[in-house]
Amino acid sequence: MSEEVKDKGEEAIGSFAENVEKNLNFYFGNKIGIVYNFGKDIFFEVSYENLPDILESLKNNPDFNFNVLSRIKYKEASNFLIIILFSYEKLITLNIKVKNTVSFLGSDFKSITNSIKKVFEFSQYYSDRDYIKDLNNDLVIFSQLPETLDTFDIYVSLDNDVIKSAYLCDEISRYNSGIVFSNKEISKIMSMLNNLDYKAGVYPELCFCQGIESLMQIKLPKRAAYIRMLVCELSRIICHLSYIVSMSLVMGNMKVFNYALTEKEKILNIFELITGSRVIPNFIRIGGVKKDVEDSVLDSLHKLIPPFYKGIKRIEDIFFSDIVLLERLKGKGIVDSKTAKISGLTGPNLRASGIRFDLRKTENYLLYKDFSFTVPLGRFGDSFDRIFIRFKEIYQSLKITGEIIEAMPLGPIGKMINPVNLELIPSPVISTVECPHGIFKLFIDIKESKEIEIIPLGPARNDIIACERSLVSCSVDELLPVVSSFGIESQEMY
Amino acid sequence: MSNFLIKSSLNIYVAGYGCCKQEILASAGPVYDISRFGISFVSYPESADVLVFQGFYNGKGLRKIINIYNQMVQPKWVIALGKCALENLSYEGSENNLLYEFKKRLKVDVYVPGCPPRPEAFIYSILRLIEKP
Predict the structure, then answer these.
(1) What is the pLDDT along chain A (494 residues), one digit of tens a residue?
(2) pTM for this model (two decimals)
(3) DSSP labels for B68-104?
(4) Which of A170, A188, A195 to mutate to test binding with chain B, by most B CBs within 10 Å of its CB?
């Protein structure tokens, strides 16, 4: 009975996407290019002159109702813009590529963001904001040793002890992905993808391989899908544990730091046995995985789960029994559900604000529908909830790994596909994945010369926006815990 | 003699961010326990003896690190860690070859290859630094 209900739900969402596709062609006609539909991601091209009218009708027309601006990305090397809109009612993402009719450099790029600003208020965060440095320089905190605070400088303007406005300047961590990821062959790109997420390197690989598989219409063997899920959940646990490690460093709780690192090493040992590496796995291939998992490894992992569960529970008890620490976390840096929605937050930071949205439940990629797990929610959206949710997600991931090991099927681990001789159709592909920090998206452009260009779109940019807004009217003592509780990872930012 | 005393309790400043930093942090934990060699991590360049140079950089980040190096007190050592630092594979912006200039300006004492090098490799590099005359 429940399966029928699920199927109906999927059909409804599928028809939503088709309706949007039809409406786009009906309303805009010749103004837009070919409309591509990748499940819940819709993609089309627009020229710069038609952009403001189209954006306004996309927001205000009840047939579309795209009221969240989740990202603007400017690609300097090939001179185009990507604008991503999202609708929470229909759960559909709209990707718009603005073609290079004019040069966006300098003043022209600012004029584009000004024209978008009339429709979407939050577009101001994506324009050039370096001038704020001179306005907010009452207190400057440069990047420093603990993990979450090493990628940006914080410029703050103060009224006595209270923060009036804050600016997270990420100029140290801006890099030009155009040099690394543009116009290269598939085999070269696949070896570099791990660096896009240095805490959970499996997810960019998974995202890329899923995109190419959907283009080539390859169906995964069941065992390969299960092994992929196993590796993904293990790296989710590792990522959340390293978040707790860095959080304990910031709060000065060295007991938690030591316990969390020992637990992390236990999982890393198993992860190394499966993939062959501790941090950069390079494990997922197009059409399957690199190598099979031995039964002895699965047995040892299965035996490890109950003591590991107890270890995490012990860490949680120590962390939350400290009254001084709770005073510094509770009610500080609040992101309410409305701003969380508008700023385009995803992942655990969104769920901490009380909005249930997880791609593993809504989109059913891989075979997550085979397992029973819940999506934990926070209540207030403060720093305490953001840490609390990570602990709860570790328990859920442990539950999923246990179920995966018990139901692991026999069979092949993938099709032998040589990435050098792939016959790909030249077209754009968009694929999304629920990574530990939020929704990770790759825009893959396949050209006629078989070369590939990749644009990574991670969740960290939206985290920065929400963080800056939540810092207003905090006191200075709360600044570092609030900033590091967001878990911003700047490698995905550009 | 003074070098010997300093080397028996080294203070390390880790600049940059990335995958290598995770493994350095793991070496500070109870499993690898780097502190048994008298080594501790600091966040002030004035009190640091060793600068660890690792991770992804653009032009501005590199200039910052040269600033940090100039603030450090003599005697001081530099360790270059990981593929990004060794092979000029860092993500550079508009200004090219800053990494090359960085290597010209100061002397790198120990190179540690790997992507990322394991915690044992990092500990071994520091032990080599201590043994060095």
Answers:
(1) 344 444 444 555 557 778 777 887 787 877 788 888 887 888 888 887 778 788 888 888 877 888 888 888 877 667 778 888 888 877 888 888 887 655 555 555 666 777 788 888 887 887 777 778 888 788 888 887 666 778 888 899 998 889 998 898 887 776 655 566 767 778 888 887 887 888 888 999 999 999 999 888 888 999 999 999 999 999 999 999 999 998 998 888 899 999 999 999 999 999 999 999 888 888 998 988 999 999 999 999 999 999 999 999 999 999 999 898 899 899 888 999 999 988 889 999 999 999 988 888 888 778 898 899 999 999 998 999 999 999 999 999 999 999 999 999 999 998 878 877 788 888 889 999 999 988 998 888 888 887 888 888 888 888 989 999 999 988 988 888 999 999 887 766 55
(2) 0.91
(3) HHHHSPSS-EEEEESHHHHTT-S---SS-SHHHHHHH
(4) A195
Asked if the bond preceding A428 is cis, omega within 30° of 0, the reply is no
A26 contact partners, CB below 8 Å, separation of at least 6: none
Q: Other CB atoms closer than 10 Å to residue A77's CB: what's the count?
A: 13
Find the closest chain A residue to B83 by CA distance: A195
Alpha-carbon distance A388 to nearest alpha carbon in chain B (angstroms):
22
Question: Which residue type is seen at A348?
Answer: P
What ipTM does the predicted assembly reach? Answer: 0.90
Residue B41: closest C-alpha in chain A: A145
Find which of B11, B14, B17 to mutate to test the A interface (most A CBs within 10 Å of its CB): B17
